[in-house]
Amino acid sequence: SPLVSLRGVKKTFANGTTALAGLDLGIRAGEFVSLLGPSGCGKSTALRILAGLMDASAGTVEWPGSGADADHRGEIGFVFQEPTLMPWANVADNVWLPLRLRGVSRKAAQGSIDECLDLVGLSGFHKSYPRELSGGMKMRVSIARALSLRPKLLLMDEPFAALDEITRFRLNDDLLHLQRDFGCTVVFVTHSVYESVYLSSRIVVMAARPGRVVAEIDVDAPRERD
Ligand code: ADP
Ligand code: ADP
């Protein structure tokens, strides 16, 4: 059974725009799924509803492994297109934030902070400030922060869209290794066919008007490349 599913999810905004018109999507544990489709087809909306950041107008988000009232926010890491780091806090304190919000002291968090920065290739950057880092490195910190709660599910909303091509290729490679080492489930929103083929074990293609799934593609053995 899937880790989490969207069933018949519809979303109409206050201004009357329908972003999703009955989306069915099941995410299996351990898979790397890309949501691929043109701008405006409802990818971000689907991801936000999966994350519990936004309510659906109709339909349900189901976590078969737990009761209907369970809070899953602690099991989800979310990476936005912009790194959204706190400029006044150093790298380590930025990664600490989600743990801090759950009452974990800086001292108790140290091991997790070290591990997450190591996973994204930024050991030794604890005391750097966001303004001292390149765009790619800021994105790495943002990924480390999303991993700090050891999420089962990592949701990424066009995380590399604002980066130059070389940085983006590098981060794609590192993300593949990271997912294998960390062992989490990833849902990755992109409008890049290249990125979806390179990264995913499964591609879910969405189309606008109405926002829904039009194709699902199993990508063969994507992990054999390394
Ligand atoms: P994608 O991520 O595929 O680009 P989105 O989920 O961001 O698509 O948006 C889907 C549709 O919903 C678009 O037409 C967009 O303009 C619209 N939309 C998104 N957010 C809002 C909002 N808060 N209010 C009104 N319309 C919105
Ligand atoms: P990224 O792909 O991580 O954004 P960039 O190519 O933007 O990296 O790197 C900008 C500068 O930061 C380069 O001088 C690069 O050597 C340095 N840099 C990037 N990542 C690291 C790292 N993990 N350790 C040390 N230096 C790094």
Automatic annotation (TrEMBL):
Domain ABC transporter as annotated: residue spans: 4-226
Domain of life: Bacteria
GO MF annotations, alphabetized: ATP binding; ATP hydrolysis activity
Annotated keywords: ATP-binding, Nucleotide-binding, Transport
Family: Belongs to the ABC transporter superfamily.
Protein name: ABC transporter ATP-binding protein
Entire protein: shown range: 15 to 240 of 270
